[in-house]
C-alpha cells in the first residue's frame, strides 16, 4: 500500500511544489488561489443580511443542495457545482435576498458556473427545460446579469474543488479527485453552512484532503503539516475543521473515503452517473422542485460545441 | 519599421487614459453600490450589503419552488421595492435607515457615517452613449460589433465591443468568460478591459484601443516582417501567453486576428471568449476549438485532453506566418473528421507523418488512421520557404520546438522565452513587472526604431 503512494508521505516534496501536467507548478497555482481568497474573503464568519422575508442559512443550504443535485443530474462536473456554490454564497452574503427569489439566484449561479466550466454551449430554454424549471430565458439572463454585477464580473471565484485539486496535486494524488463517491463527500460539505460560513475554502479543502490522506496512509500528518505551512494555515484551525467535516460525513452515514473505494469507483463511473442520490437537508414545508423529485435520467439533444471566432 | 508604418496612417492616436478618466470609467463598476468610494480594482474588498432589493425585476408572482402562498401574502405588503408601490416618504426613509444600521453586521471597515440613503437613492448608472462618442466601426461579426470611440470626459480613445443579446437566449458564455478571465489578467501584453455596461438590452465591453490586429498588419507586409520585428513580436506573444498559462488559463483561439498592435509595436492578446481556466487533468474539453489553420494535430485527431500545448502550436503557426507573410498550414476544410484530413495532410507534409515510437499516445486518438496518411518525411523550414532564413538557425530551432507533433514535446511559453533565439535581448527583459512593456527597456526601444 505505501509503495503506491510514496508521494503522500513526502513532506519536503510537497513544500517544493510539483510541476503539474502542463508544466505549471501546483505551488504557484495554489499561491495564486490563496492570494485571491485573501482578497475576496476578508471577513469571517460570513453572515447573511437579515430582514423581513430574507433568506436564512436553512434556505441557503437547501438551495446549495439543489444546485449540487441539479449539476449532477445534467452531467456537470464537480468543478461546475463547486463554482456555482461559491458564486451563490458570494451573492447571498453580499446583498439581501428575499426568500422568493433565492431559487432564481441559485439557477443563475449554476448557469454561470456551467458556462465557465463546460465546453458545450446550451441554449437557456434547453438548460431550464432539463431542470424542469419554469423561469423564462429572459428572466435567467437578467438574473445572470444581476449576479455578475454583484461579483463585478469576476465570476472565477476560488472554490472548494479548485483548492482540493491543487492540494492533491501537491501530493501527487490528483487522480483521486474525479471519483464519483468522493463527490458526495464534497457535496455534503458544500451544503453545510456551519462549515462554509466559518471556514475559508482553503481550510475546508485542506481538512478534506487530510481526511482523505489519513484514510490511505498512517503517516498522513507529515504531508498535511507541510501543506498547512505552505498555505500559512494554523494546524489548530485545520484540526477544528476536520473534526467538523468528519462529523458531518458521519451524520450522513457516508463512509470515510479510502483508496480502494475511490479507485474502484473509477471503473464504474458510467453506471454511477445514472444513479441519483438524495441530499437531505432541512426538510421544508415547501414543495420540492420537480427536478429534485425526478429520478429518471434526463436526456437532451447533443449540445453544440464551442466554435472559435471566424477567420 | 512598426513605428514608421503606423505614423503614415495619419499620426498617433494614442491617448493614455488620464487618472480622472480611469476613475470615471470604473465608476460604473460601483454604480449600484452604496459605497461609491470603493477601490477601482473591485476584487480587493467584500462588496457592501445593499439595502435595495436588486432582484426586484422578478416582480410577478414567483413560480420558483421557494415560494408558497402564505409566504407570498405575508411578503407582498412589506415589499417597499415593488414597482407598484410609491417610494417611501422621507420619514420612512430615516426609519428604514435606522433599522438597517441596527441589523447591519459590523466589520473593521464599516462606517455608518459614510452611508446615507439620499446618496444611495441619487446614484444612477451612467449611459454608455453619454460617456463615449462613436468615431468609426472597426469590425462586425455575428457575435459583436466593435467601434472606435472617444471618451466625452477626457478625450481618450477606447474600443467598444457591443455584444448582441437575443431576447430569448441567455447570456452568451463567451461574454461571461471573457469578462471574468480578463478581470484577473492585468498584463502589458494582454488587452485591458476597462468597463462593462448592460444597458438597452445590450452588453458593452470597453477595451483599450489598439491600432490594428496582426492579420491586417501582415496584409501590409506580404513577404513577412523584418527579423527584428519578428523577434520583438514573438517575445511579446510568449510573454502574454506565459502569464495566462501561469494562471492556468488557456486562450484556445490564437491567431493573427486575435493579436492586437498599437502604434509603438506593443502586441496584446485579445478575444478571450473561448478561453478557459484549466481544471483537473482528467477533465476533457471540446476538440472543436482554435481556428482550423492554427489547430494542433492532436486536437485535429480528436484529442480532448489537451493543455497549454494547444496554445503553443498556435504560437508556432503565428511565428511562421510573421516570417513569410502567409499561413504555414492553410487547410481548406473545417468540418467532420474526414474533412480535417486536408489540414492534417498539410501538417504532416511539412512536419512528417507521426512516428508511433516517438509519439506512442497517437494510437489512442480517435482520428488517427495511419493507413490513410501518406508517408511524409519531416522537412527543414528552409525547404518549405526560403524566407525562414530571416530567423537564422536559432529561430528555426525554436520554431521546430513549437511545432512538435507530440503535445508533450512542445516547448512551453516560459521556456521559449529563454531560448537562445532571444539571446540578443537584455536580461532585464525577464525581470520586468507584468504591467510593464518590454519597450520600457532602452535597448529594445532602440531596436524598435531601427
TrEMBL record, chain A:
The keyword ATP-binding does not apply. The keyword RNA-binding does not apply. Residues 277-311 are annotated as: Disordered. GO terms for biological process: G1/S transition of mitotic cell cycle. Residues 65-149 form the Cyclin-like domain. Pfam families: Cyclin_N. GO terms for cellular component: cyclin-dependent protein kinase holoenzyme complex; cytoplasm; nucleus. GO terms for molecular function: cyclin-dependent protein serine/threonine kinase regulator activity. Keywords: Cyclin. Belongs to the cyclin family. This is Cyclin-like domain-containing protein. It comes from Caenorhabditis elegans. The lineage of its organism: Eukaryota, Metazoa, Ecdysozoa, Nematoda, Chromadorea.
Automatic annotation (TrEMBL), chain B:
GO terms for biological process: mitotic cell cycle. The keyword Kinase applies. Residues 55-70 have a biased composition (Low complexity). InterPro entries: CDK, Kinase-like_dom_sf, Prot_kinase_dom, Protein_kinase_ATP_BS, Ser/Thr_kinase_AS. Keywords: ATP-binding, Kinase, Nucleotide-binding, Serine/threonine-protein kinase, Transferase. Residues 1-95 are annotated as: Disordered. Residues 1-37, 71-81 have a biased composition (Polar residues). Residues 132-422 form the Protein kinase domain. One of its GO terms (molecular function) is ATP binding. ATP binds at residue 161. SUPFAM superfamilies: Protein kinase-like (PK-like). Belongs to the protein kinase superfamily. CMGC Ser/Thr protein kinase family. CDC2/CDKX subfamily. This is Protein kinase domain-containing protein.
